[in-house]
Specification:
By secondary structure, this protein is α/β, with parallel strands linked by helices. It has a single domain (12-280), classed as 3-Layer(aba) Sandwich (Arginase, Chain A). The protein has helices at residues 38-49, 81-93, 107-119, 144-147, 167-176, 183-189, 191-201, 233-245, 265-280; strands spanning 17-22, 51-54, 57-60, 73-78, 97-102, 123-127, 158-160, 179-181, 206-211, 250-254. Helix 5 (167-176) links the parallel strand 7 and strand 8. Helix 2 packs parallel to helix 3 (107-119) and helix 8 packs parallel to helix 9 (265-280). The longest helix has 16 residues, at 265-280. It starts with 16 loop residues before the first strand and ends with a helix.
């Protein structure tokens, strides 16, 4: 396993943020494979693109906003899918913020179930090209919202970046009152208005899930199911930071397929999202 340079404590009791890798894609139906390699690839990208070496010193770069001061980060390492539920439940029960890097998007179902059993229904900000609200098939990366429905307060949740929805997914979203924001909405309304919209409805009892395919493939070609017309990298970072700054229970970054990357641009962007998220945790 690659060690995450920004990990600065050695035990869970000393940490307030815990990075967890889940190198599992057992519930993916994607033709593109390789998300099981993503956790270490993201760590490596962070280590290589966010630190300079000069005169024998390793010098970290700073986030664009927020602060790394007083952030006690533990890289817990990689775990098996079957271990994620209990670890997440233990962490959030002890007021630690888990940052989970996958892996396919179905791992979010395990995290949400654990958090829901601790806190009850929570708000969810779900950045994804797809709603993942299929109900005709269950227990896979396309049924996350269906599988997690008992843990989600849909009226305090939002889908962002959606542009490849199946009819049943939109029908399911409408039934539960889940707001859907497409990339066109971001263009028409502006990123500030979108941020204000979710800030007004989602309180600090929320989870943020980022499927990298919410981004346009120009920014993130190395995803399991690339879809044209996506969110820009800076708009995503801004929205994620706004969400995190207002208070979160946990966050994940999923669906990086390293074999399809070009000069590591997707991995480096995932690493940047990770850095900016850590800096914005309050």
């Amino acid at each position: 396993m690659v060690h995450f340079y920004r990990s600065n404590v050695n035990t869970i009791p000393d940490a307030n943020i815990v990075l967890i890798g889940v190198p599992d894609e057992s519930k993916s139906h994607a033709k593109r494979k390789g998300t099981n390699r993503a956790p270490d690839v993201i760590r490596l990208a962070s280590n290589e693109c966010e630190f300079f070496e000069r005169e024998g010193k390793i010098i970290p770069i700073f986030p664009m906003s927020g602060s790394l001061e007083n952030k006690k980060v533990l890289d817990f390492g990689n775990i098996r899918r079957e271990e994620l539920y209990q670890l997440t439940a233990d962490l959030v029960s002890n007021k630690k913020v888990p940052i989970i890097i996958g892996g396919d998007h179905s791992i979010t179902s395990l995290a949400l179930e654990a958090i829901g059993n601790v806190f009850g229904r929570i708000g969810l900000l779900y950045f994804d090209a797809h709603p993942d609200f299929v109900s005709s098939t269950r227990n896979y990366y396309g049924s996350v919202l269906t599988d997690s429905a008992a843990s989600i307060d849909f009226k305090k949740s939002m889908l962002i970046g959606t542009r490849a929805a199946e009819p049943e997914e939109l029908e399911n979203a409408t039934k539960v009152g889940l707001e859907v924001i497409t990339p066109l909405d971001i263009v028409e309304l502006g990123v500030l208005n979108i941020a204000n919209r979710f800030m007004s409805k989602v309180n600090d009892k929320k989870y943020v899930s980022i499927d990298l395919d919410c981004l346009d493939p120009a920014f993130a070609p190395a995803v399991s199911v690339p879809t044209p017309g996506g969110v820009s990298s800076i708009d995503l970072i801004y929205l994620v930071k706004q969400a995190v700054e207002s208070g979160i229970i946990g966050i994940d970054i999923v669906e990086l397929s390293p074999d399809f990357d070009i000069n590591d641009i997707t991995a480096s962007l995932a690493a940047r999202i990770l850095l900016e998220s850590i800096a914005s945790i309050r």
